[in-house]
Specification:
Length: about 170
Amino acid sequence: MNLQVQKNTLYVGGLAEDVNEAILHAAFIPFGDIKDVKTPLDQATQKHRSFGFVTFLEREDAVAAMDNMDGAELYGRVLTVNYALPDRIKGGEQGWAAQPIWADADTWFERQQQEQEMQRLQSEQRAAMQVAEELHRKKMAEERQGEKEEDAEIKSDPMAVAEAEILSQTT
């Protein structure tokens, strides 16, 4: 499965409980301008879930931060820094664990309807193509049949055969 990563957004795992968004911002600001910092909360405890996301304005800054901060220590914990996966794969900003299982139901039904409509249109298009191909085959067969009948008429009429020979010799 080939997933497109968000090259400006980094996943930062292994955060200590004391680390908040301001501390995470301060740790990563030396590498470039930061667009956004998020630490998704656990709904039960209202504390972050030991990871966060840092989004840089420039891709090069994100690369530099990842190269320097992956394996670095922050508040006594070793960080894991990678490119973040897109939200649509993870399940939104808070991830699947923070969402009820039916949260994606509406979009799922919409996607199903769109897929069914696409399949219907494709089958209609295939059917139309088959009809067009069949008509073309019939027309070609009729033309071939007409040529055979003309050839048969020419061969049965001695004057037509002689005329055809003369025409072929003059050209």
